[in-house]
Write a structure and sequence with these properties.
336 residues, alpha+beta, Ribosomal Protein S5, domain 2, Alpha-Beta Plaits, 2 domains, 8-stranded mixed beta sheet, 4-stranded antiparallel beta sheet, 39% helix, binds (3R)-3-hydroxy-3-methyl-5-(phosphonooxy)pentanoic acid
Amino acid sequence: MGNRGIDYFLLVYVHQPVLIHMPAILVHTIGKSILFGEHAVVYGQPAIAIPITNLRTRVTLTPDLKAQTPTYHYDAPDIGMQGTLDDLPHDHILVEALRVFRESFSIKSIPSFKLHVSSSIPVAAGLGSSASISVGIVRAIAQHLGLKLPVERINTLAYQLEKLHHGNPSGIDNTVISYEKPLYYIRDQAPQFLEPGEPFHFLLINSAIHSLTSRVVDEVRRAWEATPIPFNALFHDIGALTAQARQAITKGNQVMLGQLMTENHHLLQKMGVSLPSLDDIVTLCNDNGALGAKLCGAGKGGNVIALVKADTIPSLLQTLQSAGWTETYQTSISKK
Ligand code: PMV
């Protein structure tokens, strides 16, 4: 999404009042869903992720010209987090972001600023809230420093911040949010962008069960270490489904894509990252007109993503509402 400056003015007293014009920086970033390959992607298998452009994080950076010494203020009212650098935990994203910029660009002192972060992306729901904040903060600080960075660089810097949230992220979240395009992703490789053969519509249903990605990724790692053979087989099978899904997307094959999504859900069940509520939502969607459905993201809560024909959305929404699943989002992918 484009960055816009909000103009504001500051009166500075030198010998007489001087009007200094400083632009505040406003950055919007989007949400995302993993369509195929979560968890397996951490182990080198391909995954597919899509943008959710109507879920947004908004980062506003206001230069603080009054500060006598370098001062950085963070305000995220959605999560009740507020304070200057000294008040924030030492592993806070802002602390890390400043360190990453200083080290990456050999900057001694970053000019003072106030950062305000708000988001419509639900937290701990597998829809990219942490990665969208990482990308937003990187873009805002880069602009503040007058750095015109290509999206590849924004993505690499955001990945460093993502490592704060869980030690071993595949990088898919920050990549889809940086590029804002559907992509086929293999860890440590450049993303391959997908051109859907025809539009695909998706419904996301929030189970409202909070789930921390880092915890679930860690659980899978421990289970894999304990019994590597079945887990390697699961990862491999998910990778094979993902490769087929890529074909289905580029060919515009809705039926095939839906079937592959439900198959991917069954493999995630075997991996132990589903929950009865997520299984119920998948079944409800598939019994009521969806072409396929699966949990998306780390699992153990969060959202289900269902592939739907546009004309079945109203009746499916009604069925979901009646069953108590009231928090839903919609997104589509199509040829640009
Ligand atoms: O952030 P989430 O919950 O959408 O999960 C990210 C996907 C995982 O494959 C589980 C982890 C990763 O780093 O790729």
